[in-house]
Structure formats: structure tokens, C-alpha cells
């Protein structure tokens, strides 16, 4: 979690994500790249490596030098000023943290995915407004797409975190055999926050509670997880059970491994992670299971 990419549309939610990214970078000794994705008339064919101009330094592809290009130039000027303001703010909030900026001209999701590869990001921190928010492009659909497709972990932030201090981590799963693929990512989180209490949570909609408890205990013991609490949660909905338990224990972070393949255990399905990430109050970290 040292090379952090923060997509921003300059909304309040993306600013919350930027603030959390700065605090994380300060905590881990990492760097932050603030990314803005511009959607312009040339979005299907043009890519910018930074707000200084196109990748090859040439005129925009398919541009006749007319209104489309003028619109893009004006938009880039406004974006440059806003990015400079973010860098100035970062110097005040987190002196010593290296903050870079970048602009991609693309569709939003494609631009973020391209920037992850271009900048070698090992964590994306995204603001999210949840479903039904239409003012900005950080609607649930874009967050969900990153959770599903990003090759690195995605941390979703929905509310301002004045002090992002991680003292309670909720790790929901059914602790079946597939959960072994989540261990590497969980250990990385624990290494970043060694003093945090780990709450193992199993949402029980049906089935044997004793068996579920044994699976949880075996997972903790076999993997020598320390500073652990375990909870069985009764709820009609897995996502609502996770959200409610996170509130109950005052979680600072919810960690959910995902797998897009159908047929795997319910708590490893990406759709549940997407719902929790866009609805739960605390920040939610999602990552793909190790193969």
C-alpha cells in the first residue's frame, strides 16, 4: 500500500479519498498519485500521459483544430489549476509525502485501469457516493467496476475520515476452503496496522452455527492470527449483516476478498463486496483472491 492512486472528480467524496490516501501514505512511507480522467469528444482515441499534453506530444487524434480541441484545451487548463490546488493542500496536510498528478483522457473506468498500469499502483483509493447519486461520475457503477476489474486492492471511502486510525478491522467470510486464497492480502493489511483488532465475522443465513464457529476457529488457529475476535451474525442479507456488524464494533476498516467466478461461497462473490463497499459506513478494502 505504498504506491497509491487516487482518482478524483473534485467532488467531496473523492476529496475524502484523497485525504485518506495522504494519511495512508504518511503511515506507510508511500507516495500518492492524484488522477483525473477527462471525457472529451476525442475520448475514444486520445490518451494523455499527464495534463501537459498527449502521449506523443502531438495534436489530438481526429481533431481538426476546431471547437472540440478548444474545449479540450480549456478543460485541461481548469484541470491543471485544480490539480495544483490538490498538491498545495497535500503539502499542508501531509508534509513529506510525495504527491504527483496525472490526467487520462478516456472513459472513466478505462482511464483508471490504464493509470493503474501506467503508474504501477498497488492500491486505488476511491470516493463513492453509492447508488442514486447522479451529480458526479463516482456513482456505484464506477466503484463496482474497479472492485471487479482492478488488478490491485481498492479502498472505497464514502465519508470524511479526519483521522484514519485503524483500530478495528472486520474480515467477513464463510471460512470455507476458498478463504485460504485471501490470507496473503489479510496478512498485508495486518502488517500495515499491527495494533488493530481483527474481527472475523460469519453471516449465518442458514446452516449449522457450531460448524460455522469451528471453521472460523480453525482459520484463526491454523494461520496463527493474533488479536482476534470472532462473531456469528444472523441476518437475512449477507451485505446488511456485514454493514450492521461493522457499525456495532465501530470498525475503522472492512476487508473483503472477492472472486468473480460463480459457484464459489457467497461471501467471496464480488457482488457482495460491491454492495458493502458502496453502502457500509467505514472504508472498505477489497482485493482478489490469490490464485
What can you tell me about this protein's structure?
- This protein is α/β, with parallel strands linked by helices.
- It has 2 domains: 3-157, HUPs (Rossmann fold), CATH 3.40.50.620; 168-288, 3-Layer(aba) Sandwich (Rossmann fold).
- 38% of the residues lie in helices and 22% in strands.
- β3 and β4 (53-54) form a beta hairpin.
- The longest helix has 27 residues, at 67-93.
- Mean pLDDT is 85; it is low at 44-63 and 131-139.
The CATH architecture of the largest domain can be named as 3-Layer(aba) Sandwich
- Strand tally is 12
- List the quaternary state of the chains: single chain
What name is given to the CATH topology of the largest domain?
Answer: Rossmann fold
Proportion of β residues?
Answer: 15-25%
Radius of gyration, in Å, reads 20 Å
Distance between the termini: 20 Å
Catalogue the unreliable spans.
44-63, 131-139
Number of domains: 2
What is the averaged pLDDT score?
85
Estimated helix fraction: 25-40%
CATH class of the largest domain, named: Alpha Beta
Largest sheet: 10 strands, mixed
Report the CATH superfamily of the largest domain.
HUPs
Shape: elongated
Secondary-structure element series: EHEEEHEHEHEEHEHEHEHE
SS-based class: alpha/beta
**Major beta sheet, strand line-up:** 5-2-1-6-7-12-11-8-9-10
Amino acid at each position: 500500500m505504498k504506491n497509491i492512486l487516487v482518482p478524483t472528480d473534485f467532488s467531496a467524496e473523492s476529496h475524502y479519498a484523497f485525504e485518506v490516501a495522504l494519511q495512508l501514505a504518511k503511515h506507510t512511507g508511500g507516495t500518492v498519485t492524484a488522477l483525473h480522467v477527462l471525457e472529451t469528444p476525442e475520448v475514444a482515441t486520445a490518451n494523455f500521459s499527464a495534463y501537459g499534453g498527449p502521449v506523443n506530444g502531438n495534436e489530438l487524434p481526429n481533431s481538426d483544430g476546431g471547437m472540440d480541441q478548444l474545449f479540450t484545451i480549456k478543460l485541461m487548463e481548469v484541470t491543471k489549476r485544480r490539480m495544483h490546488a490538490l498538491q498545495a493542500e497535500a503539502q499542508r496536510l501531509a508534509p513529506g509525502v510525495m504527491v504527483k498528478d496525472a490526467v487520462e483522457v478516456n472513459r472513466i473506468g478505462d482511464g483508471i485501469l490504464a493509470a493503474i498500469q501506467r503508474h504501477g499502483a498497488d492500491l486505488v483509493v476511491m470516493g463513492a457516493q453509492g447508488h442514486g447519486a447522479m451529480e458526479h461520475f463516482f456513482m456505484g457503477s464506477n466503484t463496482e467496476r474497479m472492485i471487479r476489474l482492478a488488478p490491485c486492492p481498492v479502498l472505497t471511502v464514502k465519508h470524511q475520515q479526519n483521522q484514519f486510525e485503524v483500530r478495528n478491522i472486520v474480515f467477513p467470510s464463510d471460512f470455507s476452503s476458498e478463504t485460504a486464497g485471501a490470507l496473503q492480502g489479510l496478512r498485508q493489511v495486518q502488517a500495515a496496522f499491527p495494533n488493530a483488532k481483527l474481527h472475523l465475522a460469519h453471516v449465518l443465513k442458514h446452516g449449522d452455527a457450531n460448524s460455522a464457529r469451528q471453521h472460523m476457529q480453525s482459520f484463526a488457529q491454523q494461520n496463527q492470527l493474533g488479536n482476534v475476535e470472532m462473531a456469528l451474525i444472523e441476518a437475512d442479507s449477507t451485505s446488511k449483516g456485514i454493514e450492521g456488524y461493522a457499525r456495532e464494533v465501530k470498525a475503522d476498516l472492512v476487508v473483503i476478498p472477492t472472486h468473480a467466478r460463480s459457484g464459489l461461497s457467497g461471501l467471496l462473490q464480488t457482488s457482495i463486496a460491491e454492495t458493502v463497499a458502496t453502502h457500509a459506513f467505514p472504508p472498505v478494502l477489497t482485493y482478489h483472491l490469490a490464485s
